[in-house]
Amino acid sequence: MTFVSSAALTNAMRYQQMRMQADLVKATKESSTGKVADVGLALGGRTAQSVTFSRDLDRLNVIVDSNGLVAARLSSTQTSLGQLSNVAQTFLSSLTTASSGDNSDSLTQSTGQTTIQQLTSILNTSVNGEYLFAGTNTDVKPINDFTAAGSPAKAAFDASFLAKFGFTPNDPAAANITAAQMDDFITNDVTPQFVGSGWQTNMSNATDPQIVSRIALNETTETSTGANSDGIRKLAMAAALVSSLMATGISQAAKDIIIDHSQKLVGEALSGIAQVQSQTGIVQKRVSDASDRMKTQIDLFERHILDLEAVDPAEAATRVANLTQHIETSFALTARLQQLSLLNYLT
């Protein structure tokens, strides 16, 4: 005689439900992702191939994302360099007018002051909390304000004038400064403060080394430009000379020398800034090309991974539907079994 226990049937049904629910979770995941739920179980010996493809794909995606940030920084740098070039061009126009005697000394001085203030503002531009022209020292403003109270660069400039001539620019004796004396002062005293070591002592906090970024798996390049380039130094020097001395009591001959030197400096600055713009443009192209190449590689890796891990979406959807139906039927049977009682048959 065979005995059938309702408890045994119920437990068997419960175990079957647990298995089907686990299978449903896997089938649902495969239906939604289009890939096998368990790569190791599905691929066996080819699992290592899939893992390698996925690892390389992740590396490429990280570099492409990084290149997006690099491209944004380079684009902002180009914008700032363009603004700097416009400032220099406006300043040069003012100096040209002054050299012909059509500008007053005070107006020329004001233009020089505006120029150095704009230069400082542009060079201290930051993007995402990082200063564009600071080199690797991205958390520190690259340029000190020459016109600010207590400026070390302005203090050094004034001290060098006093040491050279023995009086200040507004002293009556300044009217006797000759063209040769002013030329000597600019060449031997002012130039080292901007083009020489004095630049990084008093004006610049930027580093000479630039940010180096990996723009491809086997390619790196400098992806920033600094405030220590010759063009920027020369523009700052010209603006400092004009803003500090043009509206003072120095002789007209000395002022003519300042205008002459400043015109040459700004012309060289424009050339230097254009060169930096060109170099930045080359880097932008390299970053763009590297990203395009990697996007092609990413597409290939994704196809390889899909070939290995893909499931038939129609089959996956059918499995989900069948499992759902079986689980619902199982629950219904379990409920019927739980309602069975010997008492129902003893009455």
Question: How many strands in all?
Answer: 4
Order of strands in the sheet with most strands: 1-2
Which H/E pattern describes the elements? HHHHEEHHHEEHHH
The CA-CA distance between the termini, in Å, is: 24 Å
Task: Report the mean per-residue pLDDT as an integer.
Answer: 85
Reconstruct the topology from this structure:
Elements: H1 6-33, H2 39-43, H3 47-99, H4 105-123, E1 126-127, E2 130-131, H5 152-165, H6 179-194, H7 198-203, E3 212-216, E4 219-222, H8 230-245, H9 252-309, H10 313-339
Antiparallel strand pairs: 1-2, 3-4
Helix pairs in contact: 1-10, 3-4, 3-9, 4-8, 5-6, 6-8, 6-9, 8-9
In short:
By secondary structure, the protein is mostly helical.
Written overview of the protein:
With 347 residues, the chain is mainly alpha-helical. It has a single domain (54-300), classed as f41 fragment of flagellin, N-terminal domain (Up-down Bundle), CATH 1.20.1330. It is 70% helix and 4% strand. The chain contains ten helices and four strands. The chain has helices at 6-33, 39-43, 47-99, 105-123, 152-165, 179-194, 198-203, 230-245, 252-309, 313-339; strands at residues 126-127, 130-131, 212-216, 219-222. The strands form two sheets. It has a two-stranded antiparallel ribbon with strand order 1-2. The chain has a two-stranded antiparallel ribbon with strand order 3-4. The longest helix has 58 residues, at 252-309. The chain is rod-shaped, with a radius of gyration of 38 Å. The two termini are 24 Å apart.
